[in-house]
Design brief:
The protein is α+β, with helices and mostly antiparallel strands. The chain is built from 8 helices and 4 strands. The protein is globular and about 50 Å long. It binds glutathione. InterPro entries: Glutathione-S-Trfase_C-like (IPR010987), Glutathione-S-Trfase_C_sf (IPR036282), Glutathione_S-Trfase (IPR040079), Glutathione_S-Trfase_N (IPR004045), GST_C (IPR004046), GST_superfamily (IPR050213), Thioredoxin-like_sf (IPR036249).
């Protein structure tokens, strides 16, 4: 069975969890608590178990994968969710990397001790990206970001939209397509069940009021 090892937060593993859950792919979720991290890292960093000294780690038999993007792409290829054509695959990469960029805006903001005073800057920066994704999705005219069914990029985009909404609940109000995709993803039956389950961590990051 696949194994996914990460901290007890959503973080950079949640899009992978969402993918596995939506497709009902069995996996073992291994959680390493923050207080155990330094000793875990000292013991395993640079080994097959923790090749680059960071989580998440995904294991499929003898394959140990670091880098959340590599893990997501591996799974999308293996389970045929990368898109059918080279064009769909390239666009999936493009939208996935845009989700990574939006996630970076969120992470920079959420770890800033002054973040409450800097909400306007965060919202403006995030909306700058959302507007462009909204335009792309409109031009493309499909139900999800690239295709008419969820593919690679939708899982990361959903997670990113969800954490933005958590920080600013009106942030998607001007983006009906993105709001619609967020809703469709949230209401997919296996995802809805996961969101209610004890496999779901509430916190996107280890920040008490995030
Ligand atoms: N580019 C990597 C970044 C991984 C990363 O930053 N992991 C963090 C948790 S989200 C980590 O392991 N931090 C602990 C450390 O670096 O000591 C990915 O996407 O997987």
């Amino acid at each position: 069975m696949y194994q996914l090892t990460y901290f007890p937060i959503r973080g950079r593993a949640e899009h992978i969890r969402l993918f596995l859950e939506d497709l009902k792919i069995p996996y073992e979720s291994k959680i390493v608590n923050f207080e155990d991290w330094e000793s875990y890292k000292a013991k395993h960093s640079g080994t097959e178990k923790l090749p680059f000294g960071q989580f998440p780690i995904f294991q499929d038999g003898n394959l140990h994968l670091a880098q959340s993007g590599a893990i997501a792409r591996y799974l999308a290829r293996k389970h045929d969710k990368y898109g059918k054509t080279d064009e769909e695959k390239a666009l999936n990469d493009m939208l996935f990397d845009m989700a990574v960029d939006i996630h970076s805006i969120y992470l920079k903001h959420i770890y800033d001790p002054q973040r409450k005073q800097k909400m306007d800057i965060f919202v403006q920066e995030a909306k700058g990206k959302l507007e462009l994704v909204e335009k792309f999705v409109n031009r493309r005219g499909n139900k999800f970001v690239v295709c008419n069914e969820p593919t690679l990029a939708d899982y990361y985009m959903f997670e990113v939209l969800d954490i933005l909404l958590r920080e600013e609940k009106t942030i998607l109000d001007s983006y009906p397509k993105l709001k619609g995709i967020h809703n469709q993803m949230k209401n997919r039956s296996h995802i809805a069940a996961f969101l209610k389950s004890d496999r779901r961590f509430d916190k996107p990051v280890a920040v008490s009021d995030a």
